[in-house]
Amino acid sequence: MEFSEFNERLKKSLGFSMFPYQEYVSRDLIRALELNYKFVIVSMPTGSGKTVVELFMVYYLLKRGFKNATVMEPTRILCDQMYRQFWKAVFDDVGEEYEGECDAFNEGKSVVVSTPFTANKCNAKADVVILDEVHHAFGDPRYTEALINATPKVVLGFTALLPSYKKYKLDPRISSFLGDPVTMNYDFRTLAKVDPSFKPPKAIADLFDAEMDSLENNVFEVFFRGKVKGNRETAKFLEYTLYSYGKVAFCESLERLRDKVQDDHSFFVLCDSEGFSHKARTLQEVFSIYKVEDYKPVLVFTSRKSTAYEFEKAIKQVAKARVEVLTGDLTKEERQSLVEEAKKGEVDVIVSTLVGEEGIDIPEAKLLVMTDVPQSPLRFYQRLGRLIRNKREEEQKYLVVSLTPKTPEYDNLDDALRNLYAEGVDVSYILEKKEDKGPTARVLDALREQGSTLVPFESLDEEVKLQADGDEDKFLFNLLTSTVSGKEGSFTTYVEKAMRDGKVLYIYDVEEMGKVLFKVLLGKYCSLCYGEKCKRLCNDWLIKIGFLKNVKLEKKSLLRHYMRLFSRENLQKVEEELREEVEKAKSALEGLDYSLSVTETSNKTFTSLVETLNFNVSLEGMTIYPKVSISFYNMKESGLAKLNALAIGYKALSNLRSSISE
Fold it and tell me: Is the pLDDT of residue 330 over 80?
């Protein structure tokens, strides 16, 4: 086998060689392939270096005559991380694609690291497919389509955890050409037996969803939709306080900042309600699973003092435990005394605020609970250090993170995951549980609540609504010359993130945007025409529009007025409706002397497309040939944008013909 040759390459590029247990797993994999198994899954603990096994298997199979390999990562973050840290370092002919681009595939790179979405979009073929974090592939149609399109000879999947229920979610079409997957499991004990040098992870991380109840959710929705009037920074702070620390901290801050934001009835209802906050309720759930007597001393972190005292009450309600709160109210001597009591077993749980992130050193602690994720990497690292510092090899430690689903708190977790992974913490449970839990999920909920396929942006965020005061043609002239100002609501930030994530798409309303382009065409006509018909159709504002050069619809805040949002699952339906619009408009233009084409330019940096409509229309002895550019921001679907632009252009031509024929 090529272990010696590969290890030389590994040593030169990454500075280390394969461990004996990694070679052991690789031999098992090769034997499975020699038995003609085409789909093999390897389960290895995080921290055991399964990526090194992936690298070797691709190296081995390429040496054996396989043409190329596609490595599929579940997220863009992992895609970029794995490519830069490993694949790019070890292989020469390697590329990376995760933004819907296909360059590396088209160039025929031997190894391409990609997401399943991009691989599928590029119709990427591969002899070998490596599925990193393969548990994501079970039940996910993006993986199914990508694998079917790839037509691989061999599929190797790697994961730290493959829940049993996931196995039943594999699409039967995959089994039909690859066969049922064969699973090879290697736990900590197995690897240590094979190779005494193997070391287990410093800690295993788990994730709990801190679900808000209806009262809490009502208040959050008011902030999320940007309906709170007053100081915007204060409103964002109160929103953050609610989802990060709970209602006790929120109501405390609201009382202090009441003069900076307009009150809402839902605030009063929440603050007047009884019971624990969502974070405290979740903490009770944590201690119902992680028994204090098994993990003491336990460390619980929160950034708010009022929340810490609420946690103390909540824990005492569900666990017979000695619980103490460590805040800045204690003197240095009192804090040190509390730490010593925990080390001696006289205190079971310490609930700490910021002051404990640097001041607590309890190597005996087996469980750390983070009820919020510090945005500062340093603070996160300091918290983590309380758990993994001076860890004895025979001990297994646990980290529990509590996050509020469908809020930005889940997005804040990405940097934390990188830090955890870099510190040798097993994050497989978190990766399994965190998928589709950020604010994008709440945006999708808002779309579904509207009950229609296409949802006007303005119906979700009233702050972006444009008010057309006075003369319509005057307003349109100001719109085209960008002298009309559009607003950006707070909800806009979340919608645009959902667009960047590819979960929410949009088109411009064909009817409404068609009217805008119709006025541009009519303006060009009015700048040339004369006679009674001209007087009837034209006015000074239309003539001004006609003299505009290089008409560009590019101001994002104005374009939102015409946006119609939809979820990715409706993409095919929307495209079919646009094609019908185009054909319908074309049929209405029979006999008209015209041409219409669309040229496209793109800006990869800003993920934007510009569709330029090139008109050429002859009527009543005159020829007009305006160009109108429409910008599509956060748009990767080139075909959708071009189809939308064509439908708008044909609608404008149809309106022009109807108007002049009257």
Answer: yes
Q: In which residue are the tokens 């303006």 written?
A: 523
Domains 3-194 and 203-207+276-434 share a fold: yes
132 within 8 A of 148, measured Cβ to Cβ = no
Q: Report the pLDDT value the prediction gives residue 196, as an integer from 0 to 100.
A: 83
Exposed (0-12), middle (13-18) or buried (19+): which is 659, by Cβ within 10 Å? middle
Query: CB–CB of 95/104 below 8 Å?
Result: yes
Which residues, 6 or more positions from 543, have their beta carbon under 8 angstroms from its beta carbon? 523, 526, 527
Task: Give the number of other CB atoms < 10 A from CB of residue 441.
Answer: 17
What CATH number was assigned to the domain covering residues 3-194? 3.40.50.300
Find tokens 């405390």 and name the residue: 252
Tokens matching residue 315: 């824990």
pTM of the model: 0.63
Query: With bands split at pLDDT 50, 70 and 90, how would you rate the model's confidence at 61?
Result: very high
Please work out, in degrees rounded to the nearest 5, the angle formed at the alpha carbon of residue 68 by the alpha carbons of 67 and 73.
160
Q: Please, what sign has the CA dihedral across residues 98, 99, 102, 103?
A: negative
Burial of 601 (0-12, 13-18, 19+ CB in 10 A): exposed
> For residue 427, what pLDDT is reported?
62
The pLDDT value recorded for residue 464 is: 62
| Helix (H), strand (E) at residue 551 | strand 551-553
List, in sequence order, the alpha helices (H) in 290-427: 292-295, 305-318, 332-343, 356-359, 377-388, 413-422
- What gap in Å lies between CA 314 and CA 299, rounded to an integer? 15
Instruction: Judge whether residue 168 has pLDDT over 60.
Output: yes
Q: How many CB atoms lie within 10 A of CB 53?
A: 25
Cβ proximity of 80 and 132 under 8 Å: no
Q: Which of 336, 216, 223 is nearest to 282 (CA)?
A: 216
432-471 pLDDT, tens digit each: 556 667 788 888 888 888 888 999 988 887 666 666 666 7
pLDDT given for residue 315 in this prediction: 94
* Burial (Cβ within 10 Å: 0-12, 13-18, ≥19) of residue 221: middle
Residue 409 has pLDDT above 90, yes or no: no
Q: How many whole angstroms separate alpha carbon 621 and alpha carbon 546?
A: 17
C-alpha 543/C-alpha 111 separation (Å) is 58
Looking at the predicted structure, is the pLDDT value of residue 595 above 70?
Answer: yes
User: Residue ranges of the domains in the chain?
Assistant: 3-194, 203-207+276-434, 212-271, 457-661
Using an 8 Å Cβ cutoff, are 132 and 54 in contact? yes
What CATH number belongs to 203-207+276-434? 3.40.50.300
